[in-house]
Amino acid sequence: MSRRVRRSILRAIIGIPLIGIRSVSASAEDDKPDAVAAGRWMDEALTTRASDSPLRLQRFADPVYVLSSAIAWTPNRDQTDFSAVVAPRGFVTDLASIPRVFWVALRPDADYAYAAIIHDFLYWQQVIPKDRADLIFKMSMEDFQLSKTTVATLYYAVARLGHSAWRENALARSRGERRILRKFPPDARTTWEQWKARNDVFAT
User: What whole-number distance in Å separates Cα of residue 195 and Cα of residue 190?
Assistant: First the structure.
């Protein structure tokens, strides 16, 4: 499904505009391939963006994904009450902490996929309260400069509708389910259900 189609469907469902990820202060001068412009852009990015690790995913045959490299969210300078979050390489995510109505737009190339995976990791680990995890989701989306309407709508959705996902994750963990891999499937036809049935593929 194309990005345009996904966005049209989401607009029809919740009536919000979606925008792409914009580079930080991308001016005509910054587009010049010179060392001064590059240094200026890097300095600004390092001081204003908290979600800046590359997002690399591997997909199972079913719509479940695993991080091929770690991603991180780091608080900005004014977010002193929060600590950094690192979702490790091998973390398996289906973006399920986002209410089902939004799944049509939550593909790995969606504008807020990075924030959704950080949020999914926090919902899985549950080392901080749910409301704090939801706030980090909001702040991570803001790092990507999504529209205020988009951020507010998705934040409201997880804050009000994410309790069932939180409880389901707690139950799954209590039953011994694991979601951090040390071995990745070599065959694209492998499903998550097949792979997680093996005991030798998980990190300790």
Answer: 7
Whether the full predicted model's pTM is greater than 0.85, yes or no, is: no
Residue 110 CB-half CA count within 13 A: 22
Alpha helices in the chain (DSSP H): 3-14, 35-48, 113-125, 130-143, 148-161, 163-174, 192-195
Please calculate the CA angle 120-58-99 and round it to the nearest 5 degrees: 30
Q: Token digits for 179?
A: 């979601």
Please give the Cα distance from 44 to 64 (Å, whole number).
34
Per-residue pLDDT of the chain in tens (204 residues, 90 and over written 9): 444 444 443 444 344 333 233 333 333 333 444 444 444 434 443 344 466 678 999 999 998 999 999 999 999 999 999 999 999 999 999 887 777 777 776 767 778 899 999 999 999 999 999 999 999 999 999 999 999 999 999 999 999 999 999 999 999 999 999 999 999 999 999 999 999 999 999 997
